[in-house]
Amino acid sequence: MAFTIYETPILSPVLKHISHLGLKTFGWKLEGELPDLPKYVVITNHSSNWDFLITVLGSLALSAKVSIMMKSSLFRGPFNPFLKWLGGIPVNRSASSNFVDQMVKTFEEKKKMILMLAPEGTRDRVKRWKSGFYHIARGADVPVVLAFIDYVKKTTGVGPLVFPSGDFEADMAKIKTFYANITERYAEKFSKKS
Q1: Torsion over CA of 40, 116, 35 and 171, rounded to 10 degrees?
Q2: Measured between alpha carbons, how far is 180 from 184 in angstroms, rounded to an integer?
Q3: pTM above 0.90?
Q4: N or C, fewer C-beta in 10 Å, the chain?
Q5: Averaged confidence pLDDT in the chain
């Protein structure tokens, strides 16, 4: 059986402790708690490569067994097993296949699943968020958990849940309101416009 970093026997509890210590050592605070639900989508702001490290530390500290969608080009060569061990799921952004339907099916097949992704889909500046996270959550009938990394407050953690109602604009307005007060490492790259 293949384990991810979040469920490797013996190592996971040790890494949880090290993650708490690492965040504290670098002056970061962890806020919020994960919902006691078997399945949900987690979104978080993403403007820097450092976000990945903070996300992994936060996930380990919270004992969150997350799957993280990443561009498939990262999985080439020796990084493939390591990224999969970190919970990475390769996504081919140029493929015509519908990854939303694939992820909805994956949710249906699993008893437990926490899928994490960045609504921007990239560290580069974009004008609009990708809506895939919303359609995955809606199709799988799971909530969206709003996670965050705030570089000014040096805080990372878990915010509120949003249950997709089907009114995309209204739901996105709630989500954007939450992120309006979060400061990214490169704030100019994290669009807060819907």
Answers
A1: -70
A2: 10
A3: no
A4: N
A5: 84
Which secondary structure element, helix H or strand E, spans residue 88, and what is its range? strand 88-91
Closest by Cα among 137, 148, 112, 113 to 30: 148
| Residue at token pair 């919902």 | 35
Structure tokens at 9: 């026997």
Using one digit for the tens of pLDDT, what is the confidence trace for 168-190? 999 999 998 999 888 776 655 55
- Tens digit of each residue's pLDDT (9 = 90 or more) over 119-128: 875 545 556 6
The residue that leads in pLDDT, 63 or 94, is 63
Q: What is the residue type of 192?
A: K
Q: Hey, what are 53's tokens? A: 């490290």
At residue 160, the 3 state secondary structure works out as strand
| CA angle at 177 for the pair 66 and 57, rounded to the nearest 5° | 25
**Smallest Cα–Cα separation from 31: which of 67, 65, 62?**
62
At what angle are helices 168-179 and 132-140 packed, to 10 degrees?
A: 120
Answer whether CATH 3.10.20 is correct for domain 11-189. no
Quote the percentage of the chain above a pLDDT of 90. Answer: 44
